[in-house]
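Subject: complex prediction, re-run

Hi both,

The earlier run crashed halfway through, so I resubmitted it with identical inputs.
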Amino acid sequence: MSVLNCAASVLVNWNVAETLALGFGSGLVTDDVEPSFNFTPGTGAGEVDLHWEQQGVVIAPGALQTYQLSALVDSLGRTVNFATVCGILVAVTNRVPGDRLGVGHLPNSHGGTVFGSPVLQAWGTPFDSVNGGVLVYGLFLDVVDQSDGWAVLAGAADTLPVKSYGVNSITYNIAFIGRSV
Amino acid sequence: MSALNCSSALITQLNTTETVALGAASQNVTDNIVQTLPFANGTGSGQIDQHWEKTSVTLAAGATVTYTLSALADLLGRTIPLVHVAALAIVVTSRTAADFLTVGDPTASLAHPFSSHLGGATQSIKVFDLLVLGVGQTDGYAVGSGATDQLLIKNSGTNPITFSIGLIGRDV
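This time it finished cleanly. Structure:
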């Protein structure tokens, strides 16, 4: 797959409001933080030339979904070959309380759910270990800017598992941005 | 520390724009993924009654900082006793290329590490620029006071890193 002529941006709005009481009065104090990242087209620092998204993924209870980052297929049927990942987003859009996803190489047994053999060609660089991962109930977003990124090694360390640690189906969106080099 | 009269909204947006060529023509196609997690005030589903933030934390190369989530001290000197974390955000505001934070306790250096967002007590996440975790509903990442309440952040780079951190959650 040749590079794509694409750009990406990530924006987070973290807003916390508290009503503070002082004597007989009170006031609303708002803390608003909006980190943002803009990636222009290319393969250099702060640039991307690949993106891939899948929306409305429904994973059955106890099921496993794998994403081979070196050879993802997008909605246009194109093969997207990440060599460097600059951003990961997993956003759960429908779930029952208590249910969650495991993104990465979490234990094969967690909360009563038992999986089979570990995923081959494990991709674990965001988690500092091929045996690492994060539990996602609602949202997981991790972004790498500048010239950095998480390396993807085709055929060796390129497969990210997403497991359902739940007893009901979970629906989520997943997206990656990055570079072909 | 009694419950705080607070609320929150966490909105994340990932936008990609691609110029798609077809024959002699081309078209920009934009894909927006927006996730909103609102948190009203309280201790019930989708609610929070605690929040804590620390901005402009600078760690020297190799240095660590430990946050005891069951007894954080905020800017007003209040003790924030998180029992469930509803959302966590770490934003790196200054770093040198190749430097990153390690969030977690991979070397088992803590007596009671906070790891309910991870698969194990010695797992960790690399943060170069941004990490956001959000929960919602009745769930939350559990904090066990005196047992699983220490969040370790290490500068795994070779230059100073400056970051801000925010946590929202409940005291039950």
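The CA atoms of residues 80 and 88 of chain A lie 15 Å apart.

- K.
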